[in-house]
Design a protein that fits this description.
CATH architecture: Alpha-Beta Barrel
Helix content: 40-55%
Distance between the termini: 47 Å
Strand order of the largest sheet: 1-2-4-5-6-7-8-9
Number of helices: 10
Strand content: 15-25%
CATH topology: TIM Barrel
Number of domains: 1
Largest sheet: 8 strands, mixed, barrel
Mean pLDDT: 94
Protein name: EAL domain-containing protein
Bound molecules: guanosine-5'-monophosphate, manganese (II) ion, sodium ion
Radius of gyration: 18 Å
Number of strands: 9
Structural class: alpha/beta
Shape: globular
CATH superfamily: EAL domain
Amino acid sequence: NELEVGIREGLKNGEFVPFYEQQVDLETGDIVGFEMLARWRSPKLGLVSPEVFIPIAEEIDLIGELSETLIKKALRDANGWHPDISLSVNISPIQLRDPWFAQKLLQILVEIGFPPSRLEIEITESCLHENIGAVRTIFSSLKNQGIRISLDDFGTGYSSLSQLRSLPFDRLKIDRSFVTEIAQEDVSSELVRAIVSLGKGLSLPVTAEGIENGRVQDALKGLGGIKGQGYLFGRPEDAGTTRNRLAKLG
Ligand code: G
Ligand code: G
Ligand code: MN
Ligand code: NA
């Protein structure tokens, strides 16, 4: 199929690039990190969303290679940022089927000279459907080197509270479907409140995704000690724009 061929060619030609969405400390408003979000600059199709090419890359067993390529670019970019600013990357659960995943990632960090303590990986609840023993082994290797692991899109998947304990996550990311509604709807705001206090109880820091306006920001600020990201702060931007943004902050 045509898209498949395009993705293979695009990978060879370096058409996949990292974009970055800022993550802020809601208390201070400071940028504390960026989430890398992949984009495909296709000469034929323009800028293509990962929602289109990630599932295909997973299907044709190219996700590992694609992700490595993007991570290498992102680590080089992030090496030019202030050393207190972290980098989050999304990892497909499929990548955790590779028993060498942790070793490969650590090798890349060494090769590029990026401190593991600045890297956070984001995994959705669907990793709980993988071989949990194998996933736990990978998590241990990553965590032993200082890489942190976030549970992404929290609240949307099939995870139960007991499963939350089955893997040693370092952070919960509240899915934006709950966050968007917090200022209007009581149920969502109760859910967000509950997730934040769950995080506190489990000593897991929390990030709220999808903050689009000041009302939502204020509602979340009141909950205390959480990080946020969303269009209110900034859309995902390419490496150059991100660098300029940081340079302006001094
Ligand atoms: O960039 P956007 O915000 O449209 O992202 C759409 C989806 O693609 C999100 O679920 C995001 O987690 C996922 N995504 C973005 N970049 C990557 C990546 O490099 N690897 C994987 N596995 N998923 C990604
Ligand atoms: O699944 P994950 O959380 O990794 O995906 C992030 C996705 O959410 C990307 O597609 C990104 O572009 C999108 N996104 C980030 N911030 C906002 C926001 O404030 N509003 C909306 N609608 N989407 C957002
Ligand atoms: Mn994410
Ligand atoms: Na998410």
